[in-house]
């Protein structure tokens, strides 16, 4: 079980490392924006990256999320057999990744036409070419996710956190060196080499666990089938999550030129605070949540709901800063070279609605992990399928009226409703007054934070025009200090329990 000092140290280290990686990712998107802007070429690259991204996320996320509960359960029985099992599972998924890569290369043209129906003939041809270049990255990403699952299960978070730094560094170098002589193809090759770097940086640490390739699957047929019965809902859920991005980009291809790129840039900027502040907490708590689920539902519930309150508490001030100063953030991040004021305006429209949904992006991922820990994988899968269906309908309708902003709003609404559904499912399973009281405490805390957030947002919005007289960086610093200072002060006044939650995080 996690001690307070261990959790805080792990979250702190992962946060620092992730921050470096995300700043590099921020720089990567800024450099791509400088070379390609919010242009049709940028649209083509981001759409071409969809197919390999969907595939490796479906396989990789399923492998990473599913490995930890199974690995920890088997490790409690026999550590050596647990390593042998992960070797078998990883080899099987690599075989599946290889088959999928070949099939998608053969059928690249119809797949591209499916995800980019609004592209012209020349754009479709270039998208098909870039897709074939980037598809082999699926193999490296599968290896990387397997390694991440094993290392995180063993409470080794440093090297997995460094994968983003490695990938972004490679892509930045490839863009700077290859964009001019090779155009967008050079960027596509950088995507592949970046994927390879994610696994290579973890491999030295992975070797100590005896993970190795397995070439014969027939002797383990029953074991593989039993495991896949648990894994397939996780894979379908991961695929459904990626379909939200596909739906967004498919609909965006029918809007004005640059809409796909604007959605991508807005999403990347959203994931900066999400990945640096919220995801490390989710990552570090997941193995501990799994361990508690193996003990009892009460122990699991206590840690899970405490984590929920912490996520909401951490998310609120970032939401306020992004809603108030979103235009300045985009200008500072991207407005240079081919990325002009018009591109900033289009990107801001999407970023505003994405920002409002920031807590639900984190809560959705966190609650999905909680259901995986309980081995309630089908419930998680159904929630994702529901969210995709809702997102499709809302994106189509709202984009007709709000453009890219409508697409972002639809994504936020689907995230909100999916998070509520998963939360209610946990509540219905609660047993006794003590469990029910914990859920009510979460709702009470969320209500306090909503009131605090509304007060600070109104005040920050009122003072924001005064900050516009200064350079952008000064404006952002002023608004950030104002928001975070008031947030801490009002949290003390309202006696928000999340301020003291870590002091009570002790093992049982």
From TrEMBL:
Q: Where does the record place it? A: Cell membrane
The pathway this protein participates in, as annotated, is: Cell wall biogenesis; peptidoglycan biosynthesis
Q: Which GO terms describe its molecular function?
A: lipid-linked peptidoglycan transporter activity
Membrane topology annotation: Multi-pass membrane protein
**An annotated GO cellular component:** plasma membrane
Q: NCBIfam families from the entry? A: murJ_mviN
What protein name applies here?
Probable lipid II flippase MurJ
Organism the protein comes from: Peribacillus simplex
Gene giving rise to this polypeptide:
murJ
